[in-house]
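for the writeup, i need someone to sanity check this before i put it in the appendix. the sequnce is what the collaborator sent (i think, or maybe the updated version? ugh). structure was predicted straight from it, no edits. if anything looks off just tell me and ill rerun, i have time this weekend
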Amino acid sequence: MAEQGEDDREYRRLEDCEEDSPAGEEEEEQLLLHVTEGPTDSWHHIKDLDISLTPPHIYQFHQRNGFACVLLSDVLELVQFLFVVTFSTFLLCCVDYDVLFATRPLNHSHVPERAKVTLPDAVLPAPQCARRLRGSGWLLFLLVLAGAVWLCRLVTALRRLVGYWEIRSFYIRALGIPA
């Protein structure tokens, strides 16, 4: 099967450039150059692919196991950041630690004084949680800052994914390496 893929490719002789070849070199050692399908490739107009497809990105693409794994990893990193910020905010604003650590008794009349306190007993109702959140200026500032950091990470991830998509296309079309 590998021979069939090689047979489909077109090769042309590299024109002898006087400035590139040393003086006195015979024409016997002409190089063969792989020619892509045509101007439909997005890298056809690029003269120096070494600069365009930078080695660190190609290496990372290979080490991170291809485009699908890179996409999944970036999406999960963004979801993880949102989860950490949301859960931290919940723990700061919506849990009554005095009730949780039994320094203040519960206001329920049906619970005995020595009863085990659980997390649902210590969670504040949503309106009270929202009031505590709105009342803390520093926390609101930190949440806005975390939102800005998340948006920057989203833009960075999208820019990286576009670059990795180009590398993926180059691997598949020009090099003939399947995903």
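The two ends are 17 Å apart (CA to CA). Helices lie at 2-8, 49-52, 55-63, 67-93, 97-100, 119-122, 126-135, 137-174.
thx in advance!!
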